[in-house]
Amino acid sequence: MTGMLFEGFGVTLQIFFFTLFGSIPLAVPVALCRMSKIGIIRTITRAYISIMRGTPLMLQMFAIYFAPYYVFGIELTTDSKWQACIVAFIINYAAYFAEIYRSGIQSIPRGQYEAAEVLGYTRAQTFVRIVFPQVVKRILPAMGNEIITLVKDTSLAFAIGVAEMFSTAKALVASQVSMVPFAISAVFYWVFNFVVEVAINWGEKRLAYYHD
Amino acid sequence: MSEQNNIPAVSLVGAKKSFGENEVLRGVTLEVNRGETVAVIGPSGGGKSTLLRCMTLLERLDDGTLRYEDDVVTEGYGVYADKRALAKARSHFGLVFQNYNLFPHMTLLQNVMDAPVQVQKRPRAEVEKEACALIEKVGLTGNEYKVPCQLSGGQQQRASIARALALNPEILYFDEPTSALDPELTGEVLKVIRQLAAEDITIVVVTHEMAFAREVADRVVFMDGGVVVEEGKPEEVLVNPTQERTRAFLERYSG
């Protein structure tokens, strides 16, 4: 039984890491578009973020799963569920991360930009060398929060039929008429998040060498 | 180089700047010669800081011309030169902010070295040698690997002077360099500026330190209401002002 849960946990880990590796970089251009000087880009990005945050991730998964069939008439394959799940998670979390990035970027004092400008840094250099490193420190606690939520959100993939740990636990509960699989899966999530907490704390400590 | 000796290091003529309805600069002319030390004094809201922000390209003029030797920034009507020309103009000057604006995530040494390495693309080893010399010059040797939050206000301001000097500017602007400091820390910063004033670098300092202005400046400029009310040698402007507004300001200041 634990073996099956382990197998499911492997899928959970995959959803987790695919989502992070996809959404953490994707959120950078999203945040920049959200702060764009061009009104239309800002408005579109705002609408995207609003929809992503304002509707359930579960429904977004369904929408992405069925859209190719209903809109383009593309035949769904066995891989479609997995792909839809990952895409939905990435674009959903990118919206949340983008807002965290934006809050971090906007919290950097004007004086930092002005000092960089007078010293002759280009806009790109100012972002990479001055703004970004300071933003990382400022957003780390908020990112930790969101990443911990992601660990638990991976269980939503069960709704679309991806066999991650929660789906497995649910199946085991039904077949064995026992709540133990749920209890074990809860321990798995908690241990996983414990590791995430340790990692975030380590990051915060590493950046504690200065304060503003 | 020799034909440049006669043209000012910076020339600002007829500068106008408004923020909405508020006319902050109403036609200011300020030319500073190479090696000169100019102190700009005057009441708050008189346009001193805006003047400095316009001269350092942090704000754009609505009208008036600005040039650094042969490098034209604007020839009027708020029309500015292209990006490359502005970058070249920027290389003429450095600016020391009232609030230092050091980069908090970098050590003192990194703060001083980063722009020469990243902006001027100079070799790291050479820059590091110069940076250490500058750090020594501002009296901060031994603090190279400290981050700004480990330094006192006075030390931070001296660090920001070293950072500005690292790019070898011809002109160094100071925007109320001691206004954010406790009185007992202003001395160490003024000492560094005094030392620089004796060298051939051109200095423009906006200050409320009248005694300091009198001592270091070759010329004092009194600004009020967005215009230069009076300018001249420190003993003229600060001791025997010809304008009523200057006199009133100085009385309020010493009183």
What does this structure look like?
- The complex is a heterodimer of chains A (212) and B (255).
- The model of chain A has no long low-confidence stretch (mean pLDDT 93).
- By secondary structure, chain A is an all-alpha fold.
- Chain A has eight helices and no strands.
- The N and C termini of chain A lie far apart (51 Å).
- In chain A, 81% of the residues lie in helices and 0% in strands.
- In chain A, helix 5 (110-118) packs antiparallel against helix 6 (123-153), helix 6 runs antiparallel to helix 8 (180-206) and helix 7 (165-176) packs antiparallel against helix 8.
- By secondary structure, chain B is of the alpha/beta class.
- Chain B has helices at 48-55, 83-90, 108-118, 124-137, 153-165, 183-197, 210-216, 234-239, 244-254, and strands at residues 10-19, 22-32, 37-41, 63-68, 71-75, 93-96, 171-175, 202-206, 219-224, 227-232.
- In chain B, the strands form two sheets. In chain B, strands 6-7-8-3-9-10 form a six-stranded mixed β-sheet, sandwiched between helices.
- In chain B, strand 9 (219-224) and strand 10 form a beta hairpin.
- The longest helix of chain B is centred in the last third of the chain and has 15 residues, at 183-197.
- The radius of gyration of chain B is 18 Å and the shape is globular.
- Chain B starts with 9 loop residues before the first strand and ends with a helix.
- Classes of the chains: A mainly alpha (212), B alpha/beta (255).
- Chains A and B meet through helix 5 and helix 6 of A and strand 6 and helix 3 of B.
